Amino acid sequence: MASLSELPPMTPEAFRECALAIEREVGRVIVGQRELVRLTLVTLLAGGNALLEGVPGLGKTVLVNTLARVIDVTFRRIQFTPDLMPADITGTNVIVEDEAGRRTFRFEPGPIFANLVLADEINRATPKTQSALLEAMQERTVTVAGTIHPLPEPFFVLATQNPLEMEGTYPLPEAQLDRFFFKIDVPYPSEEELVEIALRTTGVESPAPRTVADGPTILAMQRLAREVPIASPVLAYAARLVRSTHPDAPHAPEAVRRYVRYGASPRGLQALVVAAKIVALLDGRYNVAFEDIRHVAKPALRHRLILGFEALAEGLEADRVLDELLESEELLPA
């Protein structure tokens, strides 16, 4: 198979062919979890960052490692622990001595300087260390001692997180959650999938995915995705959905008014629109439909809803609120 980086300027057909090839190769290692793989791929093609949440042992780290092998980019893994410091992520200035005996400072880059960064168990570290990723995730730069260092392109942070009720975890601050393009829930595998996982992982040989894309290809796909047109009524529907996540919005459903303290930011609308464009391309269409917006609403908005005390007391999750939002008759597209 020829390298996809040698293709002519990216076309919708080439975009879909490449994306399906990536999904196919990841599927050689990851059993089932098609929606998880699809949403992670959408995040990468949008140039965003993804937060994968699930109990330990569901293959979150394996998914990211496999994706790094399928896409020929530099990859670094950061294991977040309570004693991890911000400089362990961003890098720091070190004193070096030249041949003449003169001492100078030299910047030693940290593991954040890679195309694909796995922030493993991000909520095991303290908020101070978690905040080291804020600038990198938004501006694609790292500032150390007043000097701005650009990060390589493409750049993605794929973070894994254990549920907060587990011991030894720290909740991510709202400002950092908002910088994640998607929050993707990792479901527990079915009985049939458990059997297949055992067959693949307890034998002599393990499945090995092939490399089918590289950095320039991903950048070309990102550019094409943003060129997909979106009709005014579809864009207005997306904006109405995001606005209605706020309890003071005129069309906010009862669940939002009762359980939500703060709704989604404008980043939520940006995530909805870009993700819907990519979903349309993956479906072989060069236009965004209402259903594309609805398909990506939960991963784009669930982590951007700040629930109130009543919701927490009742054990209500953001997805329940979004279900009512998406089914509200006042918000349904005509």
Précis, in short:
This protein has 334 residues and is an alpha/beta fold. It is built from 16 helices and 13 strands.
Describe the structure.
The strands form 5 sheets. Strands 3-6-9-1-10 form a 5-stranded parallel β-sheet. It has 2 domains: 4-218, 3-Layer(aba) Sandwich (Rossmann fold); 228-327, Magnesium chelatase subunit I, C-Terminal domain (Helicase, Ruva Protein, domain 3, Orthogonal Bundle). The protein has helices at 12-26, 34-45, 60-70, 87-90, 127-130, 134-139, 174-177, 191-201, 215-227, 232-243, 254-259, 266-282, 290-295, 297-301, 309-313, 318-327; strands spanning 50-53, 71-72, 75-79, 91-97, 103-109, 116-120, 141-144, 147-150, 156-161, 182-185, 213-214, 260-262, 306-307. It has 334 residues and is of the alpha/beta class. The radius of gyration is 21 Å and the shape is globular. A hairpin with a 2-residue loop joins strand 7 (141-144) and strand 8.
Radius of gyration: 21 Å
- The neighbouring-strand order within the major sheet is 3-6-9-1-10
Count of DSSP-assigned helices: 16
CATH class of the largest domain: Alpha Beta
| Ends distance | 45 Å
Assembly state: single chain
Name of the CATH architecture of the largest domain: 3-Layer(aba) Sandwich
The biggest sheet amounts to: 5 strands, parallel
Question: Low-confidence spans: pLDDT under 50, at least 5 residues?
Answer: 1-7
Look at the helices and sheets and give the structural class.
alpha/beta
The general outline is globular
Average pLDDT, all residues: 84
Beta-strand percentage range: 15-25%
Can you say what the CATH homologous superfamily of the largest domain is?
P-loop containing nucleotide triphosphate hydrolases
CATH-defined fold name of the largest domain: Rossmann fold
Helicity, as a percent range: 40-55%
Question: What are the secondary-structure elements, in order, as H or E?
Answer: HHEHEEHEEEHHEEEHEHEHHHEHHHEHH
